[in-house]
Design brief:
Layout (H helix, E strand, L loop, with lengths): L1 H12 L7 H13 L3 H11 L6 H28 L26 H16 L2 H20 L5 H40 L1 H5 L6
Length: 202
């Protein structure tokens, strides 16, 4: 039943040779490049911000990084426990994005971007979480549209991200302050020159 639903939804979303070329090119850009917002926002929130908010920002960055590390690890475990071929490997639909024929469930891109969006919703602002969740859905759509993932691969990434944020919060509750202190010390050492010049926050 679930497999049939998965295939039906995939065929509804998947592009075909008759799909507009501009839409396929846009989907390729979304599928390959928009994920770069993850390291970009993490770097911005760690290095810059108002002095009274920088500690809270860095705590959020650490929890987000923990959640992503946990989610990628869980995704690897789930993928090995429940292997699933990609659509183009099964000969279903059309593929418009080169990809290795490895297991598709859950989606690595979906796992990372949904974890990132949920982290912002839980630990930053609701509006930023909503904006990033919308972006995550667009990325998820693009990878299904281009034929490298099934819809349920993305749902799996969302569920892994949700679990990972909960586990990251548990880790933070126990070791958060120790992790923060060590990383702050490393930050001061690595960015000492930039801190003295006022280019980044202490």
């Amino acid at each position: 039943m679930m497999e049939q639903l998965n295939q039906t939804l995939f065929l509804i979303i998947n592009a075909t040779p008759a799909s507009p070329e501009w839409l396929i090119k846009l989907a390729v850009f979304i599928a390959k490049d928009l994920i770069n917002i993850v390291p970009l926002l993490i770097a911005i929130l760690w290095l810059w911000g108002q002095r009274k908010q920088i500690t809270a920002q860095r705590e959020m960055v650490i929890k987000t990084a923990l959640a992503i590390i946990i989610s990628v690890s869980l995704s690897w475990v789930v993928g090995h426990l429940f292997p699933h071929d990609r659509p183009f490997v099964d000969g279903i639909g059309y593929n418009f994005l080169h990809h290795a024929p490895d297991d598709s469930y859950p989606s690595d891109h979906g796992t990372v971007i949904f974890t990132f969006a949920l982290a912002f919703a839980f630990w930053h602002r609701v509006w930023s979480g909503v904006a990033l969740f919308t972006l995550a859905c667009v990325i998820a759509w693009s990878r299904v549209y281009l034929g490298v993932h099934w819809p349920l691969d993305m749902l799996g990434g969302l569920l892994v991200g949700l679990c990972s944020c909960g586990l990251a919060q548990m880790v933070w509750n126990v070791w958060g302050m120790q992790i923060y202190k060590r990383l702050h010390q490393a930050h001061r050492f690595c960015f000492a020159l930039f801190i003295r010049k006022g280019w980044v926050r202490d």
